[in-house]
Amino acid sequence: MKNVVIIGAGISGLTTAKAFLEQGFTVTVLEQSSGIGGVWRKDRAYLGLATQTTKNEYAFSDFPMPDDYPEWPSGAQVNDYLENYARHFNILPLIHFHVEVVNMNYEHKKWILEVSNKQQKTTEVLIFDFVVVCTGVFQEKYIPEFPGMKSYLEAGGQILHSSDIQSECTLKNRHVAVVGFAKSATDIATRSSELSFSTTLLYRKAQWKVPRFFANKINLKYLLFSRFSEAFFKPYRKTRFQKFLHSLGKPLVWLQWRGIELLLKQQFKLKQCGMLPTHKIETQISCSLGVAPVGFYEKVRTGSIKALQAEIAFFDGRTVVLKCGKRIMPDLMVFGTGFRQTLPFLSPQYQQLIRDENGSYSLYRNIINPKVPALAFVGFNSSLFSTLTSEVAANWVVHYVQGSIQLPAQQKIEEELKLIENWRQQVRPIAQEFSGLCVAPFNFQHLDQLMKDMGLKTCASNNPLYEFFKPINPKDYEKLLHKAKIRQYATQVLSAP
Question: Is 119 in contact with 74 (CB distance < 8 Å)?
């Protein structure tokens, strides 16, 4: 299987291309847009976009972000970083832009792809030994439908998705309403309050957000991105320490989360904002955990952002009628309501194999379903530092293609997937978001599984106490993965004719 195609040129597509290139595979990357980066693509980056995690955590293991980047790089800086990564590892020449996969089928141990070149308006058939889907979880813009939307547009109102807000001119001197409470919605509302005549934020439920610095002093990575902090969540399979914490140590777990909640209530003055969540923070922390935009809660308290916990009932011309009975008249409606994850190029027969009856993906290690041959998914293990989880998954796929990963029997795989699905439904419902593709907050657990499958160490040092408390560091994985590459190269040399 030397001829590999990668669908998508975002974070996961780039690191997968690099992993296969290093092992001598023939690599083709198909990207339907005009540029690389996926969610960080220049034509998708909304105004004020920045990373949720710090630059050292949001980097590939062997390609650090520039020293002059701020702690939380902007969308434009991340895109530049990815372009430099692709250039440095000679990936750019392999990417075919404006090429969309229309259909793909597996015949005679080959994948037959029908592709369309949107720029040249041509179609062709391509044949590959192995396919890696790297389209991620943020694909199609999602704007919910409401009665009367057409009348609002006809009356001169404008409706945009948050990813379309790329210029200050779009918000300046207008009456803006932003829908949602996730990252993009609160980011845009914060920026809009500085540019527009008025900004209204409509949200159904107040969610917990975390600051970049707890108590204005402690970087969030020290509290949320370590093996120690991960142990305070209930996984589907517990370590010894987790078994203790979630039995005899329950009071410690309770104190940990209530303490963090108290800190957030005080730091953000949530009661004064009228935005005190009613659910426990540990039930929310996942890939959708939001870092609060600087100044967001202060703007809510002072009224420069008018926050309304209300849902839209219908549109009546230029008037937006809310279910609570209130009416607003914005010039612009911005929906920060996320994306839908679809695979339109996969036929129903494959879709049924990789997704269960609830719509969640049935992928072993979030990467493969052995019932679908010569097909893998990278970037479907979304986390709070997706550069690293995608990179390790990409290396896992290379090992898998080379035959150095021994999979359990199909029955064992199905039992594992069933165990995880039951855990999502009964213990941790938030884990069902993103079609079940989010591995956070169990980032270390997921990485450890992949590393062990590859026969590699899970820690860079021999100090277990240090490894338990220190925050994630992608540089550690450069050392660990480098040993695997040396071993793979030696195997290739010894097996060469």
Answer: no
Q: Which residues contact 156 (CB under 8 A, 6 or more apart)?
A: 318, 331
Strand 110-117 with 99-107, pairing: antiparallel
Tell me the three state secondary structure of residue 118.
coil
Query: Taking the chain (497 residues) in consecutive chunks of 10 residues, what is each chunk's mean pLDDT?
Result: 93 98 97 93 89 93 96 95 97 97 95 94 95 89 96 97 95 97 95 97 96 92 92 93 95 95 97 96 88 96 97 97 96 94 90 86 94 96 92 98 94 94 91 87 95 95 94 93 62 52
∠ CA(207), CA(209), CA(210), 5° rounding? 160
Do 155 and 141 meet the contact criterion of CB atoms below 8 Å apart? no
d(C-alpha 142, C-alpha 122), whole Å = 29
Claim: this prediction has a pTM higher than 0.85? yes
- DSSP code of 164? G
Radius of gyration over every alpha carbon of the chain, rounded to an integer in angstroms? 23
Residues 293, 48 contacting (CB under 8 angstroms): yes
User: Phi/psi zone of residue 187: left (φ > 0), alpha (ψ -120 to 50 degrees), beta?
Assistant: alpha
The alpha-helical segments, DSSP class H, found in 193-309 are: 220-224, 227-230, 240-245, 250-268, 270-273, 296-302
Please name the helix (run of DSSP H) or strand (run of DSSP E) that holds residue 309, with its range, or none.
strand 306-309
Question: What burial letters (b/e) apply to 45-67, b meaning 16+ CB within 10 Å?
Answer: bbbbbbbbbbbbbbbbbbbebee
Query: To which residue do tokens 């919910």 refer?
Result: 144
C-alpha 45/C-alpha 165 separation (Å) is 8
